[in-house]
């Protein structure tokens, strides 16, 4: 009787051994490590998908003028964060007073102190920077902005408004922000508060900017 029980136990043990060798050794609901390895390797080799790029619009504009109107169109087209650049001491006086002050500052390369920004360019991939044209170049507050930040690895989209004399504004902006990649520059002409450039040119620019977001 004991011999019969021992043989039955041995046969059962062999059956369990062979069943385990031919089937899965992992607990129910889990995969064996040998089966997971190829999948894990494939996932590690797969390229990571880049997320949407963050865009910020920074602009200077007197009294909510022409440059603001272009900045607003860009914001509506892209959903970007937007902020006006503000000097600590605002320009004041008559139009002629501001023109004269602007000329002095441009001639001297003056960089007025700015109020702190609520949005920091360092937190964004793409920064659109807008300026009116003052004496053939950017407004001094924009020069301060470009001079105060590290633009390495950033994309800058420059846009300027002018009254018929764009000057060397875009070239000066690029020189003031070394390390940045400049793309899709835009020049827009106004006759006082009336748009003189074709709106179609602005619409095409908006479409171009959206392609890199």
Walk me through what this model shows:
The structure is a single chain. This protein is an alpha/beta fold. It has one domain: Flavodoxin domain (Rossmann fold), CATH 3.40.50.360. 42% of the residues lie in helices and 18% in strands. α3 (66-78) packs across α7 (199-210). It is globular. Mean pLDDT is 83; it is low at 1-49.
Features:
eight-stranded mixed β-sheet; alpha/beta; 42% helix; disordered N terminus; single chain; 213 residues; Rossmann fold
CATH fold descriptor: Rossmann fold
For the record, what is the CATH homologous superfamily label?
A: Flavodoxin domain
Taking the sheet with the most strands, its summary is:
8 strands, mixed
Helical residues, percent: 40-55%
Our Rg estimate from Cα atoms comes to 32 Å
Element layout with pairings:
Layout: H1 2-22, H2 33-45, E1 55-59, H3 66-78, E2 81-84, H4 95-108, E3 126-134, E4 137-138, H5 140-148, E5 155-162, H6 169-176, E6 181-182, E7 186-191, E8 194-195, H7 199-210
Parallel strand pairs: 1-2, 1-3, 3-5, 5-6, 5-7
Antiparallel strand pairs: 3-4, 7-8
Helix pairs in contact: 3-7
């Amino acid at each position: 009787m004991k011999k019969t029980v021992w043989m039955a136990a041995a046969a059962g043990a062999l059956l369990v051994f062979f069943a385990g060798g031919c089937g899965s050794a992992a607990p129910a609901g889990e995969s064996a490590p040998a089966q997971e390895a190829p999948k894990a390797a494939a996932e590690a080799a797969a390229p990571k998908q880049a997320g949407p790029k963050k865009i910020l619009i920074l602009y200077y504009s007197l009294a909510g003028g022409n440059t603001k109107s272009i900045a607003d169109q860009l914001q509506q087209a892209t959903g970007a964060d937007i902020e006006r650049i503000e000097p600590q001491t605002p320009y004041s006086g008559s139009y002629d007073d501001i023109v004269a002050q602007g000329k002095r500052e441009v001639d001297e390369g003056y960089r007025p102190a700015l109020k702190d920004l609520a949005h920091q360019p360092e937190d964004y991939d793409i920064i659109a920077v807008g300026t009116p044209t003052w004496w053939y170049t950017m407004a001094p507050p924009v020069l301060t902005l470009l001079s105060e930040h590290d633009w390495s690895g950033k994309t800058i989209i420059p846009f300027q408004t002018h009254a018929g004399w764009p000057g060397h504004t875009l070239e000066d902006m690029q020189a003031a922000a070394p390390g940045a990649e400049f793309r899709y520059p835009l020049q827009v002409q106004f006759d006082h508060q009336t748009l003189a450039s074709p709106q179609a040119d602005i619409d095409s620019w908006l479409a171009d900017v959206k392609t890199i977001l």
